[in-house]
Amino acid sequence: MTEPRSRGGWGKRLAPYLLSLPAGLWLLLLFIVPLGAMLVMSLETCSPATGACVMTWHWGELPSVVSLYRAQFLTSFYFAAAATLADLVISFPIAYWIAFHGGRRKNFFLLMLLVPFFVSFIIRTIVWEFVLSNNGVVLHTLKNFHLLPHGFHVLGTGFAVVAGLAYNYLPFTALPLYVALERIDYRILEAAYDLYATRRAGFLRVILPLTVPGIFAAFLLTFIPAFGDYVNQEILGGTANTMVGTVVQNQFLVNLDYAGGASLSAVLLAISLVGIFLYARLLGSRTIEQYL
Amino acid sequence: MSGQSALRDESELNSGRVATADTSKTADVRFEHVTKRFGDANAVDDLNLEVRAGEFFSLLGPSGCGKTTSLRMLGGFEEPTAGRIFIGGQDVTDLAPYRRNVNTVFQSYALFPHLDVFENVAFGLRRQHVAKVEVKRRVGEMLEMVDLPNFERRQPSQLSGGQQQRVALARALVNQPRLLLLDEPMSALDAKLRRQMQVELKRIQSQVGITFIYVTHDQEEAMTMSDRLAVMWHGKIEGMGSPKDVYDNPTSEFVATFLGASNLLSGEIVRTEGGMVSVATSGGVEIRVPTSRVPDLNSSAVKVGVRPEKIDLAPEGSSPTAGCNSLRGRVRVSTFTGVGNQYIVETESGVEVTVYAQNLGSQFAPRSGDNVVLMWPEEHTFTVRPLGEKTEINELEGD
Ligand SMILES: Nc1ncnc2c1ncn2[C@@H]1O[C@H](COP(=O)(O)OP(=O)(O)OP(=O)(O)O)[C@@H](O)[C@H]1O
Ligand SMILES: [Mg+2]
Questions:
Q1: Is residue B254 part of a domain?
Q2: Which of B67, B107, B215 to mutate to test the pocket of ligand 1 (most atoms within 8 A of CB)?
Q3: Distance of CA A254 to CAs A47, A51, A246, Å?
Q4: B64 in ligand 1 pocket by Cβ < 6 Å?
Q5: Which pLDDT does position B26 carry in this prediction?
Q6: What CATH number does residue B380 fall under?
Q7: pLDDT 10s digit of each residue in chain A, 292 long?
Q8: What separation in angstroms does the CA of B212 have from each of B58, B188, B227?
Q9: Which domain holds residue B361?
């Protein structure tokens, strides 16, 4: 009786580790190691002239970047929050419609939603720049019809950045919302109507509560990358309203201040982790996996 | 069928029937030529139906015959392709579900996954703005009734199938609607719990005077609980009436074989005299049927039927009792079932006839191979119109 157990014992116990080895190595090499390097670097002191860094355990860099770039952190926060909110408002009806009224074409509609995103991030943003430019299709036409004053411009304003962010991160909001809505069994909604719920009550008491984890997932997936984004600000925002992402990029690539850039990144990472931790506490860690 | 426990509780169940059946003869629910098409198939086909106020009405029928679709149209979740539906005299065909004083126990339970048991049951009361104290009391009572007293704070996902079904039942019942639609509300319950719930349902029906429309696959349940029932097939009603009526006087071959078992012999009406119709069966034997039990005297091709429990077996050579039909045959299979014996007898013309004999201890008990005479009173004989194709009928239970 003990023989089959001992025969399968080693292989069985090792199997999960063996199976996760490739992914584990991948994560270790391309994620954990760079992350560790970044965290280490944030505690080093670098010479701006040569770019060489030595470990000095300089913890002070972390709070100092926060206070130094407080304005940029706040700008990032406002822009990312505005873009996320816009995305939630825009994609909820779309996701709702596809989930409940998409019929057999659901996947087609989802694909249509994603088609623009097959184009590279940078190119998409540059096209937005073109669309929003002073002589671009939109503004030019509106000005021609005297619907806008002649000097009106969008590029170089916070609005352009938020619009770009909202546009670029829309799928990250729409998809989790869609997943959450799609999962709602229509018969449950019928049960609500059967129990005297009006359409409004059905939405507020059944659909919305069942979508909350999806909304939160959508929020995290949109807000976190938008918070650290610098491309939209660079291309659409001009020189004003610098976001943290731009600062990080400048620290690394322009100022060669690796320690400063790494410290800023560490702070950004910490903020994201707080968000995810809150999500897990409020809605349970199981639901994260379902939506990511 | 295990009829023992059913018989014992019958009196309990029927106690409500007296009170409710005559309270009111007004129609509470009416289907007028209701048809529902899905694609090019009729799920419900020109349905005409009247359910009286306070009545316990059952819908029986094989899977896919349109029972759920009929209930869904009544609840307002499906719009009829044609026809009108009335509740309490009001045309509700175009009325939204939440505007109808109807509650449903869904076949799929459809509990709210984000609400605990208490909030699930309280949902309808809260939408009607019932006072908090009242909600607490009524939900508590209802959970007590469905035997889930300490389950208030459980999530539906933490319940067994039968427990979920009872929550679904409580969630609908707690609202005390004028009309309650139950789509196989006890399919997941064990026999004991089912009996208990059946008694409770009848009690509620008689106390509150709710009209029940009850879908079930369980014939015994339908017969013991219902004031009236309808047998549906392919979206049409094949037979309707009190359980005894429909069982004793089936009007179609489908009803005769679906509700209980029937022996059916093809034949032709040859003569009508003195309130009796004579049907010549294929074997040449004439079988006499009271005219009152022949639904259509004008069509000559009929099937003549008798229930297996109505037939007596007698030794070979016995002469038929006056007022009885008789057939000669040979016992092919004899099965002892405890409460009785079940025989399959092959008649001279080669037709197989099933006979149930109660185990009274002392009567004639032939063994397989014995020649016997089958006898049954003429008044227990009926005729039905034959079906075109027979493929979809449930065959006799004994096979
Ligand atoms: N939404 C729908 N679309 C297409 N066909 C449907 C739909 N709903 C039901 N039908 C079809 O209508 C017919 C009747 O279905 P219904 O659900 O009313 O059967 P039922 O009598 O309740 O069966 P069961 O006893 O299995 O629950 C079936 O053939 C079914 O396939
Ligand atoms: Mg059904």
A1: no
A2: B67
A3: 14, 11, 11
A4: yes
A5: 63
A6: 2.40.50.100
A7: 444 455 567 777 888 888 888 888 988 888 888 888 888 888 888 776 776 777 777 787 788 888 888 888 888 999 999 999 999 999 999 999 999 998 899 999 999 988 888 888 889 888 888 888 887 888 888 888 888 887 788 888 888 999 999 999 999 999 999 999 999 998 999 999 999 999 999 999 999 999 988 898 899 899 999 988 888 888 888 777 788 888 888 888 887 788 888 888 888 888 888 878 887 777 765 555 555 5
A8: 8, 19, 10
A9: 261-384
- CA B67 / ligand 1 centre spacing (Å): 8
Closest CA relative to residue A82, chosen from A173, A172, A176, A161: A161
Could you give the ipTM of this predicted complex? 0.77
- Report CB contact under 8 Å: A195, B77: no
| Average pLDDT for chain B | 86
Ion ligand 2, residues whose Cβ is below 5 A away: B 68, 107
Domains: count for chain B:
2
Q: For residue A46, what are its two tokens?
A: 């670098």
Tell me the per-residue pLDDT of B9-39, one tens digit each, with 9 for 90 and over.
Answer: 444 444 433 333 333 456 689 999 999 999 9
Please indicate, yes or no, whether residues B71 and B219 belong to a single structural domain of this protein. yes
Of A187, A194, A201, the CB nearest to B103: A194
pLDDT of residue B388: 61
pLDDT, one tens digit per residue, over B72-121 is 999 999 999 999 999 988 999 999 999 898 999 998 899 999 999 999 99
Q: Is the pLDDT of residue B363 over 90?
A: no
Which ligand does the CA of B44 lie closest to? 1
Query: Are residue B112 and residue B217 in the same domain, yes or no?
Result: yes
Mutation pick from B112, B157, B176 vs chain A, by most beta carbons of A within 10 Å, is: B112
Per this entry, what is the length of chain B?
A: 399
Report how far apart, in Å, the C-alpha atoms of A234 and of each of A134, A156, A237 are: 17, 9, 6
- DSSP for A106-135 reads HHHHHHHHHGGGGS-HHHHHHHHHHHHSTT
Whether B235 is in the pocket of ligand 1, judged by its Cβ within 6 Å, is: no
Which residue's alpha carbon is at the smallest distance from atom 22 of ligand 1?
B68
Q: Which option is the CATH number for A61-291: 3.60.15.10, 3.40.190.10, 1.10.3720.10, 3.40.710.10?
A: 1.10.3720.10
pTM to 2 decimal places:
0.77
- Is residue B40 in contact with ligand 1, taking CB distance under 6 Å? no
**Nearest Cβ partner for B110 among A187, A205, A209:** A187
**3-state DSSP call for residue B85?**
strand
Tell me the ligand closest to B63's alpha carbon: 1
Close Cβ partners of A232 (under 8 Å, ≥ 6 residues apart): A125, A161, A164, A165, A168
**Are both B338 and B216 inside the same structural domain?**
no
Closest by alpha carbon to B67, among B225, B189, B229, B177?
Answer: B229
- Ligand 1 test: best mutation among B36, B44, B65, most atoms within 8 Å of CB? B65
By alpha-carbon position, which residue is closest to atom 16 of ligand 1?
B66
Q: Are residues B291 and B236 in the same domain?
A: no
Tell whether B36 and B163 lie within a shared domain.
yes
Q: Residue ranges of the domains in chain A?
A: 61-291
- Whether B82 and B140 map to the same domain: the answer is yes
**pLDDT tens-digit profile of B241-276?**
999 999 988 888 999 988 888 999 988 888 888 889
Judgement on whether residues B284 and B144 belong to the same structural domain of the protein:
no
